């Protein structure tokens, strides 16, 4: 009781201060991790950066989030975050850092919001620990340093949480409406992912409010209706607009936002069945092998072709992605195998799970003695909220068929909240020698240190054995000493508790800094010594480790880099797809991995010979993101008033030219080249109108446009490579293999 009274007194005293001095260094750490050197990423995620360039040019492009200035196709996400990025670019000028800035500030804002949310109920020290844990969760700054959506999504959901907590404290229905409306706004950032927090919102409001069940049901029903209305508002406007008056809805198969929301960006993420024009992640083996065979015929890239054929003959046990440190790791994009311990597998654990054992012990302590029928304290109610956020999201990532490592930022707020609240609660139980509960603190420290050693062990070649052994040894020693000194009360014990928390946060802090130390990847953000690759693979062997992991990819029209067969990416274990990596969107593309946001890495990982750029500015964008000046000059010189500078199969070749020139470039098949946007008759009409006449085609992106590509090749004039290639090489090595420039004019 004395402890509780002193804590309340301390909180009131702290509330009277304008600035919490302990919060200042936490904010500075978060600002450094989120903002430092973002100005070196010139293109960021080029797929989304190209959209911002296009959205700056007209309100039509702005409203629909058009990928290209011509308004041909949209990006694969709703527009709210990109509206914010476009406004930032309008204010500060169009730069890589200006489109990253909103997400970096959102990451910082999430740290502050979590401090406010936790501090009010659990005490000022709990708020400080929670804020620090959020700032040092590796995936948080890794994502916030890019123009991907997730950092802004989490910030918006935390704003909604603040509104909900205020609604309960003030008993005002308006705040309930505001909270659920904010989730609707978040839906227009990343669609169904925003709804992952709904169980927490419903459970908390039902448990925490002291009103009749009739009012609870009425209020929640009304708030949910408002949330749904806000969620689908933009989708209804777009889907009700005539298709010829707006861009095609990218990555949908029916040109519908609602289909995109509940299909590709919704249920299909859980099932892993991202079907596109007849192919999917879950194709039968025979069908996948047939697809592989047909795709191989579409490219003359010898390395990709040889890798494809060799992989077809291997057993599933050999088809494994390389894991950190050189071990084998199953799962596309290094997201592991579905199962109850997936979050402890390589590739995921080092992004989010550093404090999970401590969180589990904290949950036990916070809910110890709670009766099902109540009554519940405010701390127990808010603990229930964070638990109802944590568990469903953890279950989703444990069983989901398709997601990326950076989606794990959704778990950061509840983990950080429990780390902060739990640290104070377990320390209180320990100091009060509260029976078995007093053992939770040393138990949490010991198991968390053990997990961190496990997480770091595959990286021993990159970070040396000393810090790994140090964390393990100090964790064991501090846990044992705390256990032995449990009966003593003096300042030494206090210092031991602080030292234990420092040890547990030391390696997450280092991991959070790796995108700065080693370079990040804006297409597939991830933390760790291999952060520049964005693939969760073994530590990069690039000469300049601060380069982005895909700088070695060649732009359309340039000579190829060194393409070693050792750099071929192996497919996930257990997939019988003839050695192919299945694309987001579902198309099979000759063994090449499609990056979220549209890149293909030509089955190559970075190496010293292919990583050529040594400039302080990185133009990788996780994809091609380089412009062949000779090709650009040729296309510009020979443009006779056509709307599109040229057309290509997908967004990867188009994005850098849009960014550099601001001119329309047609990605015929959308993001991955698989959208069924174009037909032969529609293309003929566009050519006759003088809208497009040049086509750059490579071995990728057939998908739903096979007939179109075949027709282009049969009815076009091939442009001599000497007129547009950067070298005299007779075979163009683009990001997808050999590429060819064609010209078509119809009367």
Mean pLDDT: 81
Helix content: 40-55%
Write down how many β-strands occur, each being a DSSP E stretch of 2 or more residues. Answer: 8
In terms of quaternary structure, the protein is single chain
Low-confidence stretches: 1-5, 276-330, 536-555, 557-615, 728-737
Shape descriptor reads globular
Number of helices: 27
Helical/strand content category:
mainly alpha
SS strand fraction: under 5%
Biggest sheet descriptor: 6 strands, mixed
The first-to-last residue Cα distance is: 89 Å
Q: Kindly provide the radius of gyration, computed on alpha-carbon positions and rounded to a whole number of angstroms.
A: 27 Å
Please outline the helices and strands:
Blueprint: H1 2-16, H2 23-35, H3 46-55, H4 59-64, H5 80-92, H6 96-122, H7 124-136, H8 139-144, H9 150-170, H10 173-190, H11 198-208, H12 213-240, H13 257-271, H14 285-296, H15 302-312, E1 321-322, E2 328-329, H16 349-352, H17 356-367, H18 378-399, H19 412-431, H20 440-456, H21 460-463, H22 465-484, H23 491-517, H24 629-637, E3 647-648, H25 651-661, E4 666-667, H26 680-688, E5 694-697, H27 706-714, E6 717-718, E7 732-734, E8 737-743
Parallel strand pairs: 3-4, 3-5
Antiparallel strand pairs: 1-2, 5-8, 6-8, 7-8
Brief summary of the model shown:
The protein is built from 27 helices and 8 strands. With 747 residues, it is mainly alpha-helical.
